[in-house]
């Protein structure tokens, strides 16, 4: 998941979560300038995950306070990009991703670090 405060994408915040519930969080600027030393406040985010034989569930809870502190919550909505990679093993044993996105950024190759990959989530009772 990526979160932006405005169209400049300067900065935007990234949370990558795997099926084991591990988080890779970082702050980014345009042109894929990543700050991997930045972390989402640890007491402001929780992740639960369950892996079953045929499926998995990943749940994330982000505090409203952290969304406000990062200037991401505006009038009950947040601008976010939601992505998933499904990996398929190739004949050469290499796993290659098929990307699934909430908003299609309409690019020739997968690129989610751009303005067109974000949509607006409307929150109730915020």
Low-confidence runs of at least 5 consecutive residues: none
Which structural class do you get from the secondary structure elements? mainly beta
**What percent of residues are in strands?**
35-45%
Number of H/I helices: 1
The ordered H/E elements are EEEEEEHEEEE
The global form is globular
Count of DSSP strands: 10
Detailed description of the structure:
The chain is mostly beta strands and 126 residues long. The protein has one domain. 5% of the residues lie in helices and 44% in strands. It is built from one helix and ten strands. The protein has one helix spanning 64-69, and strands at residues 2-4, 12-17, 23-29, 33-35, 45-51, 56-62, 77-81, 83-89, 95-101, 119-122. The strands form three sheets. Strands 4-3-2-1-7-10 form a six-stranded antiparallel sheet, with no helix packed on it. Strands 5-6 form a two-stranded antiparallel sheet. The protein is globular, with a radius of gyration of 15 Å. The two termini are 19 Å apart. 12% of the residues are buried.
């Amino acid at each position: 998941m990526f979160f932006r405060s405005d169209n400049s994408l300067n900065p935007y915040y990234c949370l990558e979560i795997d099926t084991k519930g591990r988080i890779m969080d970082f702050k980014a600027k345009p042109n894929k300038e990543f700050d991997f030393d930045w972390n989402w406040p640890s007491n402001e985010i929780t992740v639960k995950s369950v892996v079953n034989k045929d499926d998995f569930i990943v749940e994330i809870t982000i505090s409203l306070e952290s969304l406000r502190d990062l200037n991401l919550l505006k009038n009950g909505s947040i601008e976010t990009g939601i992505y998933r990679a499904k990996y398929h093993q190739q004949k050469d044993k290499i796993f290659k991703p098929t990307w699934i996105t909430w908003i299609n950024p309409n690019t020739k190759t997968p690129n989610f670090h751009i303005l067109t990959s974000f949509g607006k989530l409307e929150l109730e009772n915020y």
